Amino acid sequence: MKPVxxxxxxxxTQIWNSAPQLxxxxxxxxxxxxxxxxxxxxxxxxxxDEVVTCGGLLQLLSTQGHPLQxxxxxxxxxxxxxxxxWSEKRLSVFRVQESVEALRRLGLPMHxxxxxxxxxxxxxxxxxxxQLTRFITRYLRPGxxxxxxxxxxxxxxHDAVGRAxxxxxxIAGADFYEVPVWAWHWATRDSGLIPWHRARKVRLDTWTxxxxxxxxxxxxxxxxxxxxxGIAPLIPRVLLERMRLPYEIVFV
Length: 252
Known about the structure:
The protein is of the alpha/beta class. The protein has a single domain (33-251), classed as Rossmann fold, CATH 3.40.50.10320. 36% of the residues lie in helices and 16% in strands. It has helices at residues 20-23, 30-33, 49-63, 88-106, 129-138, 156-172, 206-216, 220-224, 237-242, and strands at residues 26-27, 40-44, 68-74, 114-120, 145-149, 175-179, 199-203, 247-251. A five-stranded parallel beta sheet has the order 4-3-2-5-6, sandwiched between helices. The protein has a three-stranded mixed beta sheet with strand order 1-7-8, covered by helices on one side. Strand 2 (40-44), helix 3 and strand 3 form a beta-alpha-beta unit. Helix 3 (49-63) packs antiparallel against helix 7 (206-216), helix 4 packs antiparallel against helix 7 and helix 5 crosses helix 6. The longest helix has 19 residues, at 88-106. The protein starts with 19 loop residues before the first helix and ends with a strand. The relative contact order is 0.22.
């Protein structure tokens, strides 16, 4: 999880919750996104992005018996630069443990979930986009349905993973959908940058939302930050509040 520069922590209102555009977004059934028997692949730039982007959808697809593959591009160990409390060495181990616990809280079948760890370095994915595209392509196959971060989400790593995932899906003959994360918390709402014509809602019931929220709280390192050196929580309150909404939005 990485904060986007466009997120203003001094004005942490849920600017999109009252957006009239949200009311007009059409609902889509998960079966319309992932056909029966198809494998769903979720590509996360940083640990935790898989839960924030589509933790609810992952639960629904698992319940429906779809094979699942998770690709974690980075290990998130550079999330707290300069921190003694959350050093890169500690985070390289701790954040994997956080992800395991988060996926367990989602109720995903850990015995059958295929989980690929890329080992790429945080904050530098745009510089290695060609290698990243090749890496992702290696783990896709025709007929897969791929979900990743929106290529215009506003965070350089999220954007790079979105672009690389789209290219890899095209090469592999897989379907591809984008999921916005930080875009919902940009400082401006009516700039016309959100592709509302592509937006679809995936409805989530109360229990699915609760498990998703519970899973997010497994990322203790991202909830704590490091006040001693001025690092705020990388999962801010505004994002935790959004996690309680009874839907997820996908760009089709």
